[in-house]
Design a protein that fits this description.
Among the domains are: 50 residues, no CATH class; 76 residues, Serine Threonine Protein Phosphatase 5, Tetratricopeptide repeat. The chain is 51% helix and 0% strand. The chain is built from 16 helices and no strands. Helix 13 packs parallel to helix 15, helix 14 packs parallel to helix 16 and helix 15 runs antiparallel to helix 16. InterPro entries: Ankyrin_rpt (IPR002110), Ankyrin_rpt-contain_sf (IPR036770), Cul2-RING_E3_ligase_SR (IPR051616). It holds the Pfam family Ank_2. It comes from Teratosphaeria nubilosa. This is Ankyrin.
Length: 249
Amino acid sequence: MIKGLLERGITAHQLQTCLLRATESQRCEIVELLLRSGVPLSSLSLPVEPALQRCSFDILSLFLKYGWDINEEQEWCTPPLLSLAILTNPDPELVAWFLQHRADPNKACQIGTTPLSTAVYLASRTIIEMMLSVLCPNPKTQRLRGELLHMAACRADPEAASIVQLMLDLHPDVNARQWEQEPLAYATYKVTGLGTPLHCAARTGIPRVAQTLLEHGADVKICDTRGQTALQVAEAYGNTAVAEVLRER
């Protein structure tokens, strides 16, 4: 059937919908036939989300076989598909598959976010530790992009303080303003008020996170790009418990 469509002038690019339907129904033989026929592969055009939702490792392997670059950014502001895997289906087995096939947790898009920063913001500690374990030569000496400590401080779940401590164990600059080392991101987001991880904690409102950052040298006097201290941010967001912690310093 596919051969007949191609012979009648249908281009391989026009068969993208067929590839999507075959992926959704987990028809590996049709997926391979379409890919062999020249349906284009890119992180934007691949129907990868249904494969991620279903942990369709055979189909993901076919994408790799026919030329998918697992570390290609999705868009200028969206990191590679390991990030989408975490957003779509934060399953340790799925993340392990990506890592086993050389997905780079530290591969950034143009704006600076990475799959690892996505995980630090919302995935379990187990998944974060899996990703850190594959970084070479050593996550403590390698430049880790994506503002990991800031992302951890933005969490608002029971694991937040634990993830912040995990990031602090990598010895980041606890008083760095967010995105200062990523010019495009800094220029894009500075109007929103880019600050230190302590500013993120003040916005999120978890006292233990703020306390942990203070114990590691966070400076309460630093202002964000809108001229506000972390205390002013906490007060503006109505986070009175964090504000009280900050006043004590």
